Amino acid sequence: YEIGLKPIIVHGAGPQINEALKKSKIKPSFINGQRITDANTLKIVISELHKANENLCNELHKSDVKAYSCLTDIFKCHIKDKNLGLVGEIYETNDNKIKSLIRDNYVPVISPLGLCKNQTLNINADSAANAISKKIQPDKVIFLTSVGGIFNQNNELISNISLKDDFDDLMKSKWLHSGMRLKLEQVKNILNELPTASSVSITLDKSHIFIFPR
User: Of 20-29, 30-39, 41-50, which range is least confident?
Assistant: First the structure.
């Protein structure tokens, strides 16, 4: 932001949601890395995402960054899978609002929540980033994760992945857990929609993985 780039932030709140569910004595459940969301879970998801969004915006404001909170006004959805409950699949992304904010020198801070008529739905944050990337066509997409990348069966960080050469083998690997499997699928989907010069990285601090379309 300080050197003139135009960042867009899409955030989740997985650890905070899990902790809040634990306090409410609700056991988190997942299917293929996606959170099953019933009505009680959704209330907690919305609350924690709102808190995370507010915290991010406040921290950016402290650094003199013009952050703009986007909660439920970016994505329109329908129910993705009845087995997942109140989880949305995006069919429309309000990229005009994002582009307008960027033109006005704001950093959009976007929660993975969508609307289905008047019903708020939970969205997988990677899916939200995917939908925005297809519309905005960024030069670079960066995923910040708690582990900093994808690890092999020996628990060693894989420094580079060629989707053309490595994707199929990785997806067949039994040691690749469901959450990272979903992320890798999202990365492939993003790069399929971006120019060949674009890249995606998964990073934490100084550890990183660069994934190229070719």
Answer: 30-39
Strands 75-79 and 67-70 turn out to be unpaired
Count of CB atoms situated within 10 Å of the CB of 81: 12
Q: What confidence tens digit (pLDDT) does each residue in 31-43 have?
A: 877 889 999 999 9
| DSSP states of the chain | -TTS----EE---HHHHHHHHHHTT----EETTEE-B-HHHHHHHHHHHHHHHHHHHHHHHHTT--EEEESSSSEEEEE--TTTBSBEEEEEE-HHHHHHHHHTT-EEEE-SEEEETTEEEE--HHHHHHHHHHHH--SEEEEE-SS-S-B-TTS-B--EEEHHHHHHHHHH-TTS-HHHHHHHHHHHHHHHHS-TT-EEEEEETTEEEEEE--
Full-prediction pTM beyond 0.90?
Answer: no
β-partners of residue 131 are: none
Question: What is the C-alpha separation between 154 and 49, in angstroms, rounded?
Answer: 34
